[in-house]
Design brief:
The protein is an alpha/beta fold and about 500 residues long. The radius of gyration is 24 Å and the shape is elongated. It has 14 helices and 14 strands. About 30% of the residues lie in helices and about 20% in strands. About 55% of the residues are buried. Strands 1, 2, 3, 4, 5, 6, 7, 8, 9, 10, 11, 12, 13 and 14 form a 14-stranded mixed beta sheet that branches. It has 2 domains: about 25-85 and about 240-495, 3-Layer(aba) Sandwich (Aminopeptidase), CATH 3.40.630.10; about 95-225, Glucose Oxidase, domain 1, CATH 3.50.30.30. Its cofactor is Zn(2+). It comes from Coleophoma cylindrospora.
Length: about 500
């Protein structure tokens, strides 16, 4: 007689989920002190050296989007987290318009840098100056129609200047700096209601003033664009409640000028090392690590990600924490002002609680001073804020000068930028502050461990979000001119004039 044996039917997926569940539960539940203890300065340094090696062994010695250096950065991060077999790792692909800009006036070549989101084009036309700062339609004379508008930086967004010039009939736009040095920037988003963008580039203050003094002149502006493919990396724990997620993020790209080891190799490596060490523990709530591409081009990766999520998926993210520049050489320990008490710009419900968690950690656990930094949205947490997701994070400062008071509290040099190598070739491993790096990494680990265990300290899910979901236009309009802020948020500072 043939013996028939009943065998339970499991799909391969169900078997895998069960195996992961058993494996996950065999690990001890994550605790802050235990996760912090396994973070080593030597590992942060070694991985930062790996990023610098990636940048320095590729043309351009950088990790800008579209470069071999950035492609290798993404490969390094993704291969590392996939090999851990602890995360569901996905990528989100998109394209970034990039290219170059050339400017000839009177036979002389001038350095020009295209603004992100500018259209391509080759206008050859008279240069006509806008009145004032080009922030009002009345600043554009009739002569600007059919011309290349010459506009000073100041007061309002670059995108508004370009759109108003386009509405007045300009066929090209040159925005010149109001401080020394070349001008790079972004128009903020693909379109604006005020008008269509003409081809738009930035030039230095010296060149802008020289052209202004030599009018009338004919300009030859040539902007050539290509769509560059890139992707975000998302790694979520296989264990933990996927309906309640703590999401953390950092951008993976640098600017063209240098390898970007503080901006933002520090945030990327800090999260990568924590992701590695978290595999020693189990979690109650899912932890989602994110490495955003094209932050330096205008928060494109994070914006694409947030806009791709349904409201149901957004509601699963109980808190988003962002880490952009956490090892500045002349650092402060900056905590984003989630409750708005210092800068009068608060985040959605839960943001104040995230700020408080970091404050209490630095004060009580680490015994370190801290300062509030403005919650302006000029890094990858901006799209999350605008979608109404509770947000927070840490920041050690960019191009703004350290005050005498801060130098007395944190050490370092007053009257010197928090990072003198910001967006420059000197943003290397040698110029990281490893003390600030490890202390911030431990603070991040504390937050991840805390929320991976419980969201009890956050408002309940039923609390209504304080800000409506919106688009990148409103993101740029929400924030004031960056020179008014005290710490300088780098990166998306250049959305503003």
């Amino acid at each position: 007689m043939k013996l028939s044996i009943a065998v339970p039917i499991f799909s391969l997926a169900a078997t895998s989920v069960f195996a992961n569940f058993v494996k996950e539960r065999a690990l001890p539940l994550v605790q802050s002190n235990q996760l912090r203890r396994v973070l080593l300065r030597s590992e942060l340094l070694a991985k930062s050296q790996k990023l610098e090696q990636i940048a320095y062994t590729t043309p351009g010695r950088n990790r800008v989007v579209g470069s071999p250096g950035h492609a290798e950065t993404l490969k390094y991060i993704s291969e590392t987290v996939v090999a851990l077999d602890y995360y569901e790792v996905t990528t989100q692909s998109f394209t970034v318009p990039m290219g170059n800009s050339t400017l000839l006036v009177g036979g002389t070549a001038y350095e020009s840098r295209l603004m992100t989101f500018t259209p391509g084009g080759h206008p050859v036309a008279p240069l006509v100056a806008a009145a004032n700062l080009g922030c009002d339609p009345a600043d554009y004379p009739a002569e600007i129609s059919g011309a290349i508008a010459l506009i000073s930086r100041g007061t309002c967004e670059f995108g508004l200047k370009s759109a108003l010039a386009g509405a007045a009939g300009a066929i090209g736009v040159l925005i010149y700096n109001n401080v020394d040095g070349a001008l790079s920037g972004t128009l903020g988003q693909e379109t604006r209601p005020e008008g269509s963008y003409p081809p738009t580039s930035g030039i230095s203050k010296a060149d802008g003033l020289a052209l202004l003094a030599s009018l009338p002149q004919t300009g030859d502006l040539n902007i050539i664009l290509v769509d560059v493919p890139t992707y975000n990396i998302i790694a979520q724990t296989k264990g933990g409640d996927p309906e309640n997620v703590i999401q953390v993020g950092a951008h993976s790209d640098s600017v063209e000028a240098g390898p970007g080891i503080n901006d933002n190799g520090s945030g990327s490596i800090g999260l990568l090392e924590i992701a590695i060490q978290l595999t020693k523990f189990s979690v109650n709530n899912a932890v989602r690590f994110s490495w955003w591409a094209a932050e330096e081009e205008g928060l494109i990766g994070a914006t694409n990600y947030v806009e791709s999520l349904s409201q149901e998926e957004l509601d699963k993210i109980r808190l988003y924490l962002n880490f952009d520049m956490i090892a500045s050489p002349n650092f402060v320990y900056g905590i984003y002002d989630g409750d708005g008490s210092a800068f009068n710009q608060s985040g959605p419900p839960g943001s104040a609680e995230a700020e408080k968690l970091f404050q209490e950690y630095f004060t009580n656990d680490a015994g370190l001073p801290w300062v509030d930094v403005d919650f302006s949205g000029r890094s990858d947490y901006g799209p999350f804020l605008e979608a109404g997701v509770a947000s927070g994070g840490l920041f050690t400062g960019a191009e703004v000068l350290k005050t005498e008071e801060e130098a007395a509290i944190f050490g370092g040099q007053a009257g010197v930028a928090y990072d003198v190598n910001y967006h420059a070739a000197g943003d290397t491993v040698a110029n990281l502050n490893m003390g600030a790096f490890i202390q911030n990494a431990k603070a991040i680990a504390h937050a991840i461990a805390t929320y991976a265990r419980s969201f009890d300290s956050l408002p309940a899910k039923s609390v209504k979000r304080s800000m409506p979901r919106t688009d990148a236009f409103q993101i740029s309009r929400r924030f004031t001119e960056h020179d008014a802020h005290s710490h300088g948020h780098g990166c998306l500072d250049n959305i503003f004039s």
